[in-house]
Amino acid sequence: MPTDLKITFGLIVLNGLPFVRYCLRSLYPFAHEIIVVEGATTSAMSVASDDGHSTDGTLAELERFKAEEDPRGIVQIVTSDRPWETLTQQSQAYAERATGEYLWQVDVDEFYRPDDMQRVIAILRDDPTITAMSFEQMTFWAGLDYVVDGWYLRRGANVYHRLFKWGPGARYIEHEPPTVVDAAGVDCRAGNWIGGRALARRGVRLYHYSLMFPRQVRNKCAHYANRDWGDYAAGVMAWAERNFLSPVTWPFRAHNVHVHPSWFERFDGQHPPAAKQMMDDAHAGVLDVDCRDNSDVEALLSLKSYRRLRWLLKAMSECHLPGRLYRWMMHLRYDRSANRLRWR
């Protein structure tokens, strides 16, 4: 049943299969409305149709969901037969249509456990002065069994600003990072902002399945390669080809932000049911999607040398490694045939 709080969920999506139906199903019970903006920005046209739409059937899946799985008529689909200028413009398209008391931004590969969403709603209900919430996220890698961690994430990038108080005069002004201001022009995070660490202490986190399927990673990295992001953009397709689409080459560049040390961890916690169902369907052949063979990651995690160096990187995550040691760690390679780490 819908909550008594009016929550508008806002999504932007390009090539969102197979996530779309599972993400929408996970949000639906808690939604006052769900507004989905489909299509590419100008920087993502390399993975879009000529008129700026998804190429994998995302728009058709959204229309199917609205026709077959939206009995309350709360799903809105916003699209255009030309590319959007920016991600901010796309997000503003759902924000301008929002009629809820809260605006909750969600990427199509982001999920929450239902009990965590209920906990968030209870917190909002108990304290109506709350103006914003952020969430610590866990990045899952090629399945349900692995997460990636690293310096980039530990130094702030694992916190996503996602939920904002909404009402007359509120405006969505920036996507990177998500920023909403109230009618007086004050950033919602300048008010009663509940941070990601505070929510994590209550067990509430965002489950981010951003690096799950080969097609997803290929499209994501092709888009990122066209952004004005310096060395990261220049090398992200090489990272995809050598660390995800083929057996792992760089064991300490597990995250797609490959310019900082990162590593694999095993995950044995509980997943949101919708995400687990998606992966069960993927492995059962219900979905038209390829799953990655993770035998290389299993072998890598079995190495004592990997676990020891991972411990060192964790210990040094708040410091700076000496330049020579940093370069050595970043250039370590995994020799699958010998099941050992090698330098260059």
Kindly describe this structure.
The chain has 344 residues and is an alpha/beta fold. The chain folds into two domains: 7-208, Alpha-Beta Complex (Spore Coat Polysaccharide Biosynthesis Protein SpsA, Chain A); 212-267 and 294-343, no CATH class. It has helices spanning 19-27, 58-68, 87-95, 114-126, 151-157, 196-201, 214-224, 230-243, 273-284, 295-301, 304-315, 323-330, and strands at residues 7-13, 33-38, 75-78, 102-105, 110-111, 130-141, 146-150, 159-165, 171-175, 178-181, 192-194, 206-211, 262-266, 332-335, 340-343. Strands 1, 2, 3, 4, 5, 6, 7, 8, 11, 12 and 13 form an eleven-stranded mixed β-sheet that branches. Strands 9-10 form a two-stranded antiparallel sheet. Strand 2, helix 2 (58-68) and strand 3 form a beta-alpha-beta unit. Helix 7 runs antiparallel to helix 8 (230-243). The longest helix is centred in the C-terminal third of the chain and has 14 residues, at 230-243.
- Helical percent range? 25-40%
CATH-defined fold name of the largest domain: Spore Coat Polysaccharide Biosynthesis Protein SpsA, Chain A
Tell me, rounded to a whole number, the average pLDDT: 95
| Structural classification | alpha/beta
Strand content: 15-25%
Shape, please?
Answer: globular
* Total beta strands: 15
Listing every helix as H and every strand as E from the N terminus to the C terminus, the arrangement reads: EHEHEHEEHEEHEEEEHEHHEHHHHEE
Radius of gyration: 20 Å
CATH architecture of the largest domain: Alpha-Beta Complex
Number of helices: 12
Number of domains: 2
What is the CATH class name of the largest domain?
Alpha Beta
- Segments where pLDDT lies below 50 for 5+ residues? none
The span between the termini is 56 Å
Largest sheet: 11 strands, mixed
